[in-house]
Amino acid sequence: MSSGAGQLDVARVRGLFPGLSDGLVHTDGPGGALVPESVVRAVSQAMRVPIADRGGVFASSARAEQLVSGARTAVADLVGAVPAGVVLGPNVTSLTYAVARALGKHWRRGDEIVVSRLDHDANIRPWLQIADEIGMVVRWAEVDIETGELPDWQYDELLTDRTRLVAVTAASNAIGTCPDVTAIGLRAHRAGALVYVDAAHAAPHMLLDITQLEADFVALSAYKWGGPHVGAVVAHPGLLGELRPDKLVPAPDRVPDRFEQGSPPYELYAGVAASVDHLAALCPETPGTRRERLAVSLSAVGRYEDALFDRLDRALRSMAHVQVLGSPQYRTPTLSFTLPRMRPRQVARELARRGVCAWDGDFYSRELFDAIGANEDGGAVRLGLMHYNTVDEVDHVIDSVAALR
Ligand SMILES: Cc1ncc(COP(=O)(O)O)c(C=O)c1O
């Protein structure tokens, strides 16, 4: 593709990823994306100079402060929020447990939560466990097993005046489905419930906007878009101010610091900022603020990935020996498939032998795969595309799956 404004020059983009020099086809992006050189450099540069903890009056402490604020500002730009609402932490799972604990202090026996069968377990189990401790009612939003959609109309029946929280994914990391989170959020807000959106899988593929999503919390993990292993939960600072997470007494009580336990990985925070800069610079001539550039580049990423994915999806669906799970209308470039006489682990091994990196299993979408019945046979094989994948790679994957007939 040419490198005009708003278009992805994939040859140039691939040159940014040292990991691609292994010559393999990386369709394992949903489990964690490859890391651009700019991120590697930012992390190593941060470690070449002294970094102390924050709160001191000397230069290396000020440097730590800058790294925290750089990472918060970058994540805020990614979801259209303010840096003061960005809580940084180890990953989505730990942060969701922490938020669930903090929210649970406000909930009572008989209160209700709504979780979805489409979600990664990280946006189910923390809520189920806190609900169980308190004696809350859990309601489930179900997936249409044929299409893989999560219909939003069902929330009319699931929400009551006792609903305290709706937890829902912006995109399924297993089958790519993008539910209408805005429609679900509007319903939840009308019922007076909070909305916790897991955007870990969605973030590398689309421009997210916390307000437009009708989300109160958005959970993210930088390693899903080419950053280091750092997670974030984004919320309105006012909402964070109402919550009392477990914390040490001498640790800062201000928001969002109140939610961040212990000394953070400052050097990785440099990589978080660099990874958002990487996304924002994918269409290099684009002018404007980082948020404006993200809007252009992620829209180019979306168009590019959609075309690639369409090729992959159509080809696999045309193969009599392949069963692609679900057929959602709006989706990320991610699918899962099974073959009738081969277990997913065996298929993944065969693909690996042909130079294709692909995950097998349930991808922690345990509830979804149990509902589909896929877990009895070892789950499925997942193929997920990223902005560094190419048509040639997709054709190689197609040929490799065809060869397993
Ligand atoms: C949709 C989704 N949610 C949550 C998670 C868990 O993220 P983390 O590894 O940051 O805890 C993942 C990771 O695979 C994911 O894909």
UniProtKB/TrEMBL annotation:
Keyword set, alphabetical order: Transferase
Domain called Aminotransferase class V: residue spans: 27-396
Top-level enzyme category: transferase
Source domain of life: Bacteria
Transferase as UniProt keyword: yes
Residue ranges crossing the lipid bilayer per the database entry: none
EC numbers on record: 2.8.1.7
GO MF: cysteine desulfurase activity
Protein name according to UniProt: Cysteine desulfurase
Native species: Modestobacter italicus (strain DSM 44449 / CECT 9708 / BC 501)
Protein's gene: csd
